[in-house]
Amino acid sequence: MLGEDFHELLDDESQRNFSESLQSKKNTILKSHGRPPWYGEDGLPICDAFVIGIAGGSASGKTHVARQIVRSLGSVPTVVILSQDSFYKRLTPEEVALAHANRIDLDDPEAIDMPMFTACLTDLKGCRQSNIPVYSFAEHQRLDEVKYLYGAAIIITEGIHALHYPELRSLYDLKVFVQCDSDLMLARRIQRDVKERGRSVDGVIEQYLRYVKPAFDNFVLPTARYADIVVPGSNNSVAIDLITTHIRRQMTERATHFRRNMASKSIECCLSDGNPVSSNLILLPQTPQLKGIYTVLRDGKSNRQDFIFFVDRLATFLIEKAMEHLPYRPKTITTPINVDCTGKELDVKNVCGISIIRSGGPLTKGLERVLSDVAIGSLLVQSDARTGEPLLLHVMLPKCVRERHLAVDTWVFLLDGQIGTAAAAFMAIRTLLDHGVQQDHIIFVTFLVARNGGVTVLQRAFPKVKIVTGAVDEGLREAWLDHYNEQGEGQSEGDGRKVWIVEPGMGQIGDRYYL
Predict the structure, then answer these.
(1) Which tens digits make up the pLDDT trace of 189-217?
(2) Residues 6+ apart with CB under 8 A from 250
(3) Which domains does the chain have, with CATH numbers?
(4) Which stretches of 167-306 are assigned E, i.e. beta strand?
(5) What start-end ranges are recorded for coiled-coil regions in this protein (predicted)?
(6) Which residues, 6 or more positions from 108, have their beta carbon under 8 angstroms from its beta carbon?
């Protein structure tokens, strides 16, 4: 999800291995078990990301407290630690020279680009993507590059002025102030700036006395009155436990039962609508040739070579049909015999394909055959083994989607093997909308749709999304999948989860294609 400026901490061992490098990298993403649904059956977001603001003096231990909170939380959805330091204003060459000479006040609240900081945090809290600026302490300058960020369920913002501005405070669900002894903060600052930022001891002390200490007294310390909880800068395990207990309670209250609700909604829609297929579901002409292809693909005894051959052929048919729904404009050309001829050409600024791993993978080959040099991205959506809820585990999107000013004019072919309960389709479409892609610019391409599944709810939630498929099956059967341990042995009796199987279906398309 992120660029090089963000470090991923997957477990305690990784945290220890990267501890030294993380001291100089304030922005951190900590991934665990993926992001559960943040939207309802109507496709609209129902909960924001949970945002924590942590303020305190320079070197008081704010970043350390943030990481302690995450370690204490244990198994949680994706968490991001976002540093105020990324949002220093861009300096002129003259100001950079003064900064190197310790003659510019970087501890004043005016040194921070608060409008940009607020805008980025507002987007992240609203479950939208954002691009975070990159600041170099060695150069005393905000760099031209930015880092893409999306998908956090919990955001921890830390900085000396994190509680100073009302517009920032209004975004926090929990406000924390880290209180630390002034002598200890100075000692920590000297050690950090000399070791990590190449400063001299005299320079650090001069800057501290000239700017840091007055800014703390005048701007930072007064914001402690806004905090919901004050945390010691050391020996703070009790306070950390109180904070993490509150966060767990809040995350539990925000949890949804999306797949279960989808299943019940699908039944209601089928009973009320009779025929749930709408005009935005485009079915390939049911020719004898197409029926012959599906016969081969549905046959559990088909050999792998035949299966791959006909999947690739069908994928090409589907993409060619989907291409009909892109905008075209007239174009006049001159033929080899010098005769003008008016035809058509694509009228799009950007077009790309997004594959839902991994059953959407075979469709990417069809897309690449039809559109040369097309940008391809991917999403990984899997079911939680305990709850059956869809989890967003991985996002890798082309630049034309990552940057919102480009995403508005981008057309996306969303590729998946089938639509059963539509849980993965919901999450994928919602992700694209969060990035600024227009709903009517999304064309969902799939081999198979279950008529009695979640496609009806999907179309009600996103009525402008077109779905192109080659077959519509009638059945969606509820089944029980046993859980197994690493040795392949069943766990306790009755341990497992509910799954839904499309009938007659084609089985696990990705497994049959790649294995």
Answers:
(1) 888 888 877 778 888 888 888 898 999 99
(2) 50, 173
(3) 7-252 (3.40.50.300), 258-328+344-514 (3.40.50.2020)
(4) 174-179, 229-232, 281-283
(5) none
(6) 211, 215, 219
**Integer Cα distance of 302 and 311 in angstroms:** 12
CA atoms within 13 A on the CB side of 233: 18
Q: Report pTM.
A: 0.85
Residue holding tokens 């919102």?
Answer: 404
Q: For 236-287, how does the pLDDT look when each residue is reduced to its tens digit (9 = 90+)?
A: 889 999 999 999 898 888 777 676 666 555 555 554 454 445 679 999 999 9
Tell me which residue of 53, 71, 67, 58 sits closest to 124, measured CA to CA: 53
Residue with tokens 């302690």: 68
Q: Evaluate if residue 419 carries a pLDDT over 90.
A: yes
pLDDT per residue as tens digits for the range 67-118: 899 888 876 667 888 999 899 999 999 998 988 887 888 899 999 999 999 9
Number of H helices, E strands in the chain: 19, 21
Q: What is the dihedral sign for C-alpha 118, 120, 124, 126?
A: positive
Which amino acid is it at 406?
Answer: L
Say what angle helices 361-370 and 304-323 make with each other, to 10 degrees: 50
Provide the pLDDT confidence category of residue 28 given band limits of 50, 70 and 90. Answer: low
Q: How many CB atoms lie within 10 A of CB 183?
A: 8
Which pLDDT does position 482 carry in this prediction? 64
Q: Quick one: three-class SS letters along 416-446?
A: EEEECCCHHHHHHHHHHHHCCCCHHHEEEEE
CB 23 within 8 A of CB 192: yes
Residue in the structure block whose two tokens are 């244990």 = 74
Q: Minimal CA–CA distance to 37: which of 340, 345, 346, 434?
A: 434
Over range 152-162, report the average pLDDT: 93
> What distances in angstroms separate CA 372 from CA 347, 356, 364, 406, 512, one per listed residue?
16, 20, 11, 20, 26
